[in-house]
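Quarterly update from the structural biology core.
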Amino acid sequence: MSSAPPVWSATVTFAPADTTPAVAVDQAYRAKYGRYAGSYLEPMLTDQAAAATLRLAPQD
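Predicted structure, tokenized:
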């Protein structure tokens, strides 16, 4: 019996992410990963990380 997850695929378009909700996303990361402040959290909140964020939009 296999417990592997089902395979899923979709055709998507990559686009720049909307930066509007950045404050809310940063707060959510702080709430979830705050206990790892120095090692994981701070790199996720840099301008460089935000600039590398992409939106995946499904193609019709």
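The helical segments are 22-33, 37-44, 47-51.
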